[in-house]
Design a protein that fits this description.
It is elongated and about 110 Å long. It has 156 residues and is mainly alpha-helical. A hairpin with a 2-residue loop joins strand 1 and strand 2. The longest helix has 38 residues.
Length: 156
C-alpha cells in the first residue's frame, strides 16, 4: 500500500452536499456478562402549559401603575419639601433668618420639620400600599396558586 507524499494535494470536499448518516446507536461493551446494563437516560423535561399566564395583563398593568404612582408621590413629597427648604435658603435668606419664638429661626424650624415630613411620606406609602396594592397583588397570587394547582406543578 502506498501513500501520497506529504506535499501532494489530495482533493477532498469537507462540506459535501451529501448528508452524512448518523452512526447507529451501539450498546456499550460490557466487561463482564453479569454487569448490570447502564441506566436509562432521564425522561425529557415536561413542557410548559399552553394556556395563558395566570392573571390578566390588565391586572399586572394596574399593579405596576399603582406602584409607580405610589413611589412618585412618596419621593416627591420628601424630596419636594427638602427642595423647597433649599430654595428658600438660597432665595429668601431674610425669611429663613427670621425668628419664630425665642431663639428659634424659621430656617431651623423648617429643617426640623424635614423629619416629620419624611415620616409622613413613609406612613402614607405604607397606608396606600395596604389599601390599594396589597389586595391586587393578593388576587394575582391566588390566581397564580390556582393555576399552579391546575397544572400540577410546584411553581410559586
Amino acid at each position: 500500500m502506498t501513500h501520497p507524499p506529504y506535499d501532494a494535494h489530495v482533493p477532498h470536499e469537507p462540506y459535501s452536499s451529501v448528508p452524512h448518516e448518523p452512526y447507529p446507536p451501539q450498546q456499550p461493551h460490557l466487561t463482564y456478562p453479569w454487569q448490570p446494563p447502564p441506566p436509562a437516560p432521564p425522561p425529557p423535561a415536561p413542557r410548559l402549559p399552553r394556556h395563558p399566564a395566570p392573571g390578566r395583563h390588565s391586572d399586572l398593568r394596574r399593579l405596576r401603575g399603582a406602584y409607580r404612582i405610589q413611589r412618585r408621590v412618596a419621593t416627591f413629597t420628601a424630596l419636594g419639601y427638602f427642595t423647597l427648604f433649599l430654595v428658600l435658603s438660597a432665595l429668601a435668606p431674610s425669611f429663613m433668618t427670621g425668628t419664630v419664638s425665642g431663639g428659634l429661626t424659621t430656617g431651623l424650624l423648617l429643617g426640623l420639620c424635614q423629619v416629620p415630613v419624611t415620616c409622613l411620606a413613609l406612613v402614607l406609602f405604607e397606608r396606600t400600599a395596604r389599601r390599594r396594592l396589597d389586595p391586587l397583588s393578593e388576587l394575582l397570587r391566588r390566581q397564580t396558586g390556582a393555576a399552579a394547582a391546575r397544572d400540577g406543578g410546584d411553581r410559586p
